[in-house]
Amino acid sequence: MAAASRGLLARLRHLSLAGPRLPPCRLFSAEPLVSHPDEDGAGEGGGRIIEARSGIMGPDSRRTGVIGVKCGMSAMWDKWGAKVPITVLWVDDNVVCQVKTAEKEGFFALQLGAGQKKEKHLTKPEVGHFRSQGVPLKRKLKEFPVTEDALLPVGTTITARHFVPGQFVDVIGITKGKGFAGGMKRHGFSGMPASHGASLSHRSIGSTGQRDAPGRVFKNRKMPGRMGGVQRTVKNVWVYQIDPARNLLYLKGQVPGPQGSFLFIKDSIYKKPDRTLLPFPTYFPQEGEPEDLEPLVADLGDIDPFMAAD
Questions:
Q1: Does 200 reside within a domain?
Q2: Do residues 282 and 158 lie in contact, with contact meaning Cβ atoms separated by under 8 Å?
Q3: DSSP 8-class letter at 217
Q4: pLDDT confidence of residue 17
Q5: 32 within some domain
Q6: Is 69's pLDDT higher than 80?
Q7: Tens digit of pLDDT for each residue in 234-252?
Q8: C-alpha atoms less than 13 angstroms from C-alpha of 164 in its C-beta half-sphere
Q9: Contact between 227 and 130 (Cβ < 8 Å)
Q10: Are 148 and 211 in contact (CB under 8 A)?
Q11: What is the CATH number of the domain that holds 274?
Q12: What 3-state DSSP class applies to 63?
């Protein structure tokens, strides 16, 4: 015991003489990350004050995404009379729940929360996280990497007007689970002969290997197995219409996931929108702005409706 005590004292003495320690890692901390001017070191570059105000989006700026709920699919007709397949997404009360900065975590990101959930349905660490940040209890959390100029203070509300009609977005979601499926359904195999020469093997995948050499089945062979239930990203989805009054996004085409699932929508990477038209870092409602706004529809001009999303 005496040797252990001497070792502990020597270790503590060494740490005290080594100078100031680095701040601990706070990747999983629930403390607020926005410092106030009256805090120690906030005036000396030790903290960061984030204000909710509009700015100018630069060529390398990266905005946050939003969390949406898939309501289902419908159809609309444009001014040419062409039928447009539509997926309706609901931006359900998106709020910034945490701000991550390079000084604390080593990167810039915003944690968004969507929906509502009762305290009895959350774990104690989750409740403590929301309480410490001073935000309502949320059902879904998602972290979006952003640039430094796109940071938003905790408590900022993100609405459907974060996007503009006519731009392209990337949608991330979990596909519908199909369960265990055969080779014909899972990979589109043609199957075996339907009449002569096949006995109880009409939907079989056929041979999967060779003879004695190599004497095994190669990896990544397309075979029956579990289908669906994986994360997929649909890129370059066209925003056809926005309903600010009901906080709805109308996207052209299909997106992954069943009805009622959560989806993550962000600006497209390949088909970048015109940054002069995007609200940056997000849309801030003006004073006296009416709540029952008319839906905003993309202005196609003379563009062929069938080529709008190509």
A1: no
A2: yes
A3: P
A4: 52
A5: no
A6: yes
A7: 999 999 999 999 999 999 9
A8: 14
A9: no
A10: no
A11: 2.40.30.10
A12: coil
Give the DSSP H/E element, type plus range, for residue 3: helix 2-17
What one-character DSSP code corresponds to residue 203?
Answer: T
Question: Does residue 28 form part of some domain?
Answer: no
In a domain, 257, yes or no: yes
How is residue 8 written in tokens?
Answer: 């502990």
Alpha-carbon distance of 111 to 96, in angstroms, equals: 6
Domain count, the chain: 1
Task: Examine the pLDDT at 3 and tell me if it is beyond 60.
Answer: no
Cα dihedral sign, 142-143-149-154 = positive
> How distant, in Å, are the alpha carbons of 18, 21, 72 from that of 90?
54, 46, 10
Give the span between the Cα atoms of 111 and 158, in whole angstroms. Answer: 12
pLDDT at 20: 46
- Pick from 114, 68, 113, 75: which is nearest to 259 by CA? 68
Tens of pLDDT along 210-238?
888 888 999 999 999 999 999 999 999 99
How far apart are alpha carbons 293 and 170 in whole angstroms? Answer: 26
Give the span between the Cα atoms of 108 and 149, in whole angstroms.
10
The full length of the chain comes to 310
Q: Which residues span the domain enclosing 160?
A: 65-93+156-185+226-297
What is the value of pTM for the model shown? 0.79
Residue 29, pLDDT above cutoff 60: no
